[in-house]
Write a structure and sequence with these properties.
The complex is a heterodimer of chains A (515) and B (255). With 515 residues, chain A is of the alpha+beta class. Chain A is built from 16 helices and 16 strands. The radius of gyration of chain A is 22 Å and the shape is globular. In chain A, 57% of the residues are buried. A 5-stranded parallel sheet of chain B has the order 7-6-8-9-10. A 3-stranded antiparallel sheet of chain B has the order 2-3-5, with no helix packed on it. Classes of the chains: A alpha+beta (515), B alpha/beta (255). The complex binds iron/sulfur cluster.
Chain lengths: 515, 255
């Protein structure tokens, strides 16, 4: 049962827009907070312009152990005087998990979340109608971070370290500002937006191939995860379901993507603490998993494999058997190196107690994925909101309790083992069915969403149709939207030299955050 | 210690023999598309319709722009005559933007940098990578060249942290408005003479994000490009092949 004023909905279902409860704007925050008191997790919060002066906000709460989501809306409008900007009482004021989402709404539509503790730009762009954001109008000539009001710690021997957007390695751009006292980090502020490409608007591109590829390139290392959430949302709008065979191939691709990234990141963690044998082996093994994906669909990142309606490439029986055998070999090689890594006290000493977050902090921030599970939060879309192949084959949730770099590494290690077992079993018995059925007409005036447990955590795509059954709005959330704040928090009180391992243990997406 | 040695033994030697040994790519790998305009019936343009990035045109014969192509199969699937097919050829890098537009003929692959440049940079090339509005895939498959499997440094090519230590920039991404200033700043910090390498459809033409108001459709017109490496993302082999052509380590041509 939900608490009233919410619509209960599962991924892959389409809901009539008229069935979504609409609240008064001034009671919206309290209503969402009451949902939190019932055990809800803030899975999404976004705005959508429904008329020249009205923005409709949607709040999604996940009740993970009950396998359901709840959604409600509110309309915020301009005040009676022409200048009065649309406003509503902020949720972040009492629930930090909403902080980035409310900044996004303010930046996209000029909506003021009243009482937001730290309202500032998220991605640095103009509002959709050119109206000023709460912090003022957008100036395209001002570079980020520019004259941005960083949080500053004052005092003797306090110093500031600024890095980015261009970093030392081959990585994405972002700006990090550390307030330090000697080696100790008192505060870290992360400024993003450099990778903002306007991807969400392109998800509505009339060329269906183009929009599907945009979904795959929201976060390139999570192409499959995002494509899965995207396809699930569109298939729900059309009321169609893919065959078991297509679902199984999607599952294979999703777990290969997880393996490549977890193995690669564990190797990178070894690089950061100078345990070079494991770093070299794991770096190579990551490539082996990518090459298996290449074998399935001709692209190492799984591009063009998933499409609404199924998959574009089959895994014939003979190749499934070949892949299974290669995975058997890769399993023993990978696990041997990981055993070696986790047996090194010099490695563990650099992981333990570094960048720790408590379970309570994880809940307040709204962490997802391995970062959340490392803090003892039992949440994993594959178990909690199973869809496709995960309805039939279960992967146990991997949890740890210490919430530090060590726990994030161990969770990934466990997930590597479980994904391998899952794959070996799945490739042994591939179900029948056609791999692709074109989607039919989309239902008019509905909303649907898909969630997928990418290797970083929950990705969510929400889709809306208009009265004519045409796609009217797409909203894509990368798990990094939740987790960047966790990384900033985890650095407090650490040494600045702990930043690389801490950062790697989260390995968040800049592109996914910036869309 | 013993465990480290044992693991070392099991892992073996894994560096690719490229470019001496040519690699075997899986059957489904999509390399350079091949066009056969003779098969096109008059007035047919289904591939143009199907292509997500308007990479195909038919004025003056069937043409495909590798700088825009996402290697997605939409055109191949759409064409009733089989006029477009993929080959396994991973060699795609060119020196000029116009060379990326292919017709029936062969692809003019990248040339060695000028003698003058080669004398200064050819034997030890230091690059600063700039990610400017990518999805991160091009960056990852560039970075992979540093792993033991590829061991890029054996060719005298290295990625460095500071642009002041670099001989050029390797750019990925559609050049988001928000990275424009940082890209220019990084380039300016590289001492002259300097080179520019554009990796991936985004950096060459905007890729999937082309014509979004938030991007500048790649580096074209922003920086003078010396090497174009198409793909979405390009396979590491394609990137390596391009880099080795640029420094004159590979010169033979596509057939
Ligand atoms: S493969 Fe390239 S040319 Fe063909 S449709 Fe896709 S993007 Fe266009």
């Amino acid at each position: 049962m939900n608490g009233g004023g919410w619509l209960t909905i599962r991924q892959g279902q389409a809901a009539d827009l008229s069935k979504i409860p609409a609240l008064a704007a001034d009671g919206f925050a309290d209503h969402v907070l009451a949902g939190r008191a019932r055990g809800g997790r803030l899975a999404n919060l976004f705005g959508r312009r429904v008329s020249a002066d009205t923005i409709r906000l949607y709040a999604f709460l996940a009740f993970d152990s009950a396998s359901r989501f709840e959604v409600c809306t509110t309309d915020v409008r301009r005040g009676p005087e022409a200048q009065a900007a649309p406003a509503y009482p902020s949720i972040s004021a009492q629930w930090p998990a909403a902080q980035a989402f409310e900044r996004e709404i303010a930046e996209q539509f000029g909506v003021h979340p009243l009482g937001h503790p730290w309202l500032k730009p998220l991605r640095y762009h103009a509002t959709d109608d050119g109206s000023p954001a709460p912090w003022g109008p957008f100036d395209p000539n001002r570079a980020i971070p520019g004259d941005y009001p960083f949080y500053r710690v004052e005092g003797e021997e306090v110093h500031e370290v600024a890095v980015g957007p261009v970093h030392a390695g081959i990585i994405e751009p972002g700006h990090f500002r550390f307030q330090c006292h000697g080696e100790e980090v008192l505060h870290l502020e992360i400024v993003l937006g450099y990778q903002h490409r306007g991807a969400e608007r392109l998800l509505l591109h009339p060329n269906a191939t183009r929009s599907a590829i945009v979904a795959e390139t929201i976060a390139g290392d999570a192409s499959i995860g995002h494509a899965l959430a995207y396809c699930t949302a569109l298939e729900a709008l059309a009321g169609s379901r893919v065959s078991l065979r297509a679902a199984a191939i999607r599952g294979v691709a999703l777990e290969l993507e997880r393996l490549a990234n977890h193995v690669g990141d564990l190797g990178a963690l070894c690089t950061d603490v100078a345990f070079l044998p494991a770093s070299a082996y794991l770096g190579r093994l990551r490539g082996e998993y990518l090459n298996l994906t290449l074998e399935i669909c001709g692209n190492r990142f799984g591009r063009n494999l998933l499409r609404p309606g199924g998959v574009c490439f089959d895994i014939p029986l003979a190749s499934a058997e070949r892949m299974r055998q290669r995975l058997e070999g890769l399993r023993s090689e990978t696990l041997e190196v990981l055993d070696l890594m986790f047996a090194q006290s010099s490695v563990l000493a650099r992981f333990e107690g570094v960048g720790a977050l408590s379970e309570q902090q994880a809940d307040e921030i709204g962490l997802v994925g391995p970062a959340a599970r490392a803090c003892g939060c039992r949440r994993d879309v594959r178990c909690d909101h199973p869809h496709g192949v995960f309805q039939f084959s279960h992967i146990p949730i991997a949890v740890e309790t210490t919430g530090d770099v060590y726990a994030r590494a161990v969770v990934r290690w466990l997930e590597v083992q479980r994904s391998l077992e899952f794959l070996l079993e799945l490739l042994g018995n591939k179900p029948g069915g056609t791999i692709f059925e074109p989607l039919g007409e989309l239902k008019p005036n509905v909303m649907a969403f898909g969630v997928a447990e990418t290797w970083r955590g929950e990705a969510m795509h929400v889709a809306f149709t208009d009265a004519a059954g045409k796609l009217a709005c797409m909203k894509a959330k990368d798990p990094s939207m939740h987790n960047w704040f966790g990384l900033a928090r985890a650095l407090r009180g650490m040494a600045i030299s702990d930043f690389p391992v801490c950062n790697k243990s989260f390995n968040l997406s800049y592109a996914g955050h910036d869309v | 210690m013993l465990q480290i040695l044992k693991t070392r033994l099991h892992q073996g030697h894994r560096t690719t023999g490229f470019p001496v040994q040519l690699p075997v790519l899986p059957e489904r790998y999509r390399g350079r598309p091949q066009l056969d305009a003779a098969k096109c019936p008059d007035g047919c343009g289904v591939c143009i319709e199907a292509c997500p990035t308007q990479a195909i045109s038919t004025d003056g014969g069937l043409k495909l722009d590798l700088g825009k192509c996402l290697f997605c199969t939409a055109c191949v699937d759409a064409c009733p005559e089989g006029a477009i097919r993929y080959t396994q050829d991973y060699r795609l890098a060119t020196s000029r933007r116009t060379d990326l537009v292919i017709g029936n003929g062969e692809l003019r692959l990248a040339q060695r940098m000028s003698d003058e440049l080669h004398r200064i940079l050819g034997r030890a090339l230091r690059l600063r990578e700039v990610c400017a509005g990518s999805c991160n895939a091009c960056d990852l498959d560039t970075n992979v060249l540093n792993t033991v499997g590829w061991d890029l440094s054996r060719f005298g090519i290295q990625f460095v942290a500071s642009p002041r230590h670099a001989d050029g920039v390797l750019v990925t991404g559609a050049v988001s408005r928000n990275m424009h200033a940082a890209l220019l700043g990084t380039y300016e910090a590289v001492p002259k003479p300097r080179i520019v390498i554009a990796v991936g459809a985004c950096a060459i033409s905007g890729g999937p994000f082309r014509d979004s108001p938030d991007v500048l459709n790649g580096v074209e017109g922003i920086l003078p490009v010396d090497l174009y490496v198409p793909g979405c993302p390009p396979h590491p082999l394609t990137i390596l092949d391009g880099l080795l052509r640029l420094i004159g380590r590979i010169h033979e041509h596509a057939t």
